[in-house]
Amino acid sequence: MPSSVTALGQARSSGPGMAPSACCCSPAALQRRLPILAWLPSYSLQWLKMDFVAGLSVGLTAIPQALAYAEVAGLPPQYGLYSAFMGCFVYFFLGTSRDVTLGPTAIMSLLVSFYTFHEPAYAVLLAFLSGCIQLAMGVLRLAHISPHPLGLGGAGTSSMSPLGWPGFLLDFISYPVIKGFTSAAAVTIGFGQIKNLLGLQNIPRPFFLQVYHTFLRIAETRVGDAVLGLVCMLLLLVLKLMRDHVPPVHPEMPPGVRLSRGLVWAATTARNALVVSFAALVAYSFEVTGYQPFILTGETAEGLPPVRIPPFSVTTANGTISFTEMVQDMGAGLAVVPLMGLLESIAVAKAFASQNNYRIDANQELLAIGLTNMLGSLVSSYPVTGSFGRTAVNAQSGVCTPAGGLVTGVLVLLSLDYLTSLFYYIPKSALAAVIIMAVAPLFDTKIFRTLWRVKRLDLLPLCVTFLLCFWEVQYGILAGALVSLLMLLHSAARPETKVSEGPVLVLQPASGLSFPAMEALREEILSRALEVSPPRCLVLECTHVCSIDYTVVLGLGELLQDFQKQGVALAFVGLQVPVLRVLLSADLKGFQYFSTLEEAEKHLRQEPGTQPYNIREDSILDQKVALLKA
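Above: the chain sequence. Below: its structure as tokens.
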């Protein structure tokens, strides 16, 4: 597994998000828009071997997952496969990460189910519109993503353009909000498969109704489905544990040991395909005997999907639903789906870029995702994004370039053309087991203990998001972001202050000073310095204050007047140049500042009426002129 291969990152020496000085037609600029040009000239036979193995491994994972995720999306199984190949080909040309694979994911499938009412026409149109939004954001270079999404970090960087407000807003979706959403999604998706795992039918899809009816009808559990589903889950768990504990293969090992470990690695990596194939074989065996104890996937449309424009209207028994009405029906999904797709894919790309020591271009990733969704809608795909699970398989398989995706895409197309008749025998309980085992890691129990230990207040946005996402996804995310924003505003409005008692009272704001904090600061200064007997001089230590606004200037001016009326002094220390420039421009009466705390205390301990030893009117005027010219 050649971990030293970092052609994608190293070839792009200018770094992602950095505008090249060359013109748009220069080779460097062309490589930015077509990253394949950075690594294709140095492509080797060794890379081809590694990419082929990785692409095959991902393909064997992607096919059963695609069938399963179509169930999550509430669509016929072939739509999962329709969504699984376009990203492989687009990312080959446009991707900046060698590890990332684009395709259907659990979270995107859940969102599609929520916003498209289990109607394929709505799902395909949502893919097209989401792609347009993501492509526009990529062209305008609006991707400015902090490395927190989905609990992942990364070394890839990106700059925010002057128009980068969507990326700016995404920065207010905090880590606890993302964890709350993904944990709720894991519960919703996982519990949604309990009905298939137990063989229950006619269970409504809304979450709370689903929970109620599942427990209400638990006595109707089909023994065959339940046993097969639990066996499949157990097999997937055992194979995953084996995969995690298989020692890596080393060249110095004996050939027999290398072969055996290679076979174990291949079997555990393709565990989804093996388990689903095993379940289908069991179901077929029963079918031959004339008795079928399982609920099967059933007919899957054969052949490749037709290439056609997305449906901009839908004809139903009650008439035609226009494009405008379809857009209105999808509502907030037109914002939630593309933004969550952006968030998930770039988070995955940054995580693996950091892990494998290369860099990605977030804006270029947006172009790849957007174009994938747009072109995918022409072949009946629903919205896709980067898959963490399949990307992990890709990286662990030793992929060297995005060319591995070509093998995955071809494998999916071959399955559509030749294997759809076999999908008929796949039990739904086996696909439910695949989904449950795939989404289980999304529910992060450790985050609750971590936040309780680190900062308990951060549990509030996490819990708000987690609970409300069971009602409406967009409300959960918005409510969690709002709670995080209110917490941020509260800390800005009530900054902590450090107070030092002594001959002279020293008060130091522990963070910045903005207009919401002025009233609280004024009250604390008055209570400690002027509302005591006798009134005391005070030094305001402003080392941590990097900027102030006009409201703060007015408040400080009023404080200076209050101190003068009481016959005591208010001095400033540690003013940064931008802050000093603003205060000097305001011509505050009685304003005096010192470079060090010792100088301020020495001056304030002098008899009233003496001039500051280090500040003269002409020196203030000289500094004021110099600062205003700067």
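The first helix runs from residue 7 to 11.
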